[in-house]
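S1.2 Input.
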Amino acid sequence: MTPSFKRILLKLSGEALMGDLPYGADPARIASIAEQVKTVADRGVEVAIVVGGGNIYRGMAGAAAGMDRATGDYMGMLATVLNALALQDALEKIGAVTRVQSAIEISEVAEPYIRRRAMRHLEHGRIVIFAAGTGNPFFTTDTAAALRALEMHAEAILMAKNGVEGVYTADPRKDPDAKFIETITHRAAIEQRLAVMDSTALSLCMDNNLPIHVFNMDDERNIDRIVCGERVGTVVGT
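S1.3 Output.
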């Protein structure tokens, strides 16, 4: 099928890399995600990725208790670098060409984030993985995903969720009466405080008319189906 998008940004939470582990990274799950991403890239779609760090930070939660917020956020940024390197390794094992760009300079393992260089990588068919969030404390990786998507002129954000098909009126794992939402506007999602992404990221997407496709990461076909124009999960748009 002909892709509906030329360039996308995929937002992966750290939890998406855990599989069934309580924390840390599951090599089999990362390999599966890499296969899905490469399938899309092989269709000619330019793919950028923003990764979270919750899977690693969850294991450090005890140590971080009571810590200064900015310090904790910097620890979380470093966790995203670990995840980015793991994903890069899995992608390159199956023949993908990748680059990791970090918002915190770690020149031995990743390029510094330079917008024009990242866009050139995408134009040449390389998969670009953005690590370390925005490089600033008090901003989540959701906000980093919205920011990078806008900077890269991505046509959509694909927001991967774990174990849920999209956006619901409440947490379906806690509330059996939660109703699935097929489409919703950015503004309504903000006003209803729905678990799409944080309000700063949603506001950025709303102000710039950037659609968000929220889908279940557990189905290995979903990324490719969305890219090919199928209606999957929830679409948040104007």
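S1.4 Remarks. The chain has one domain: 7-237.
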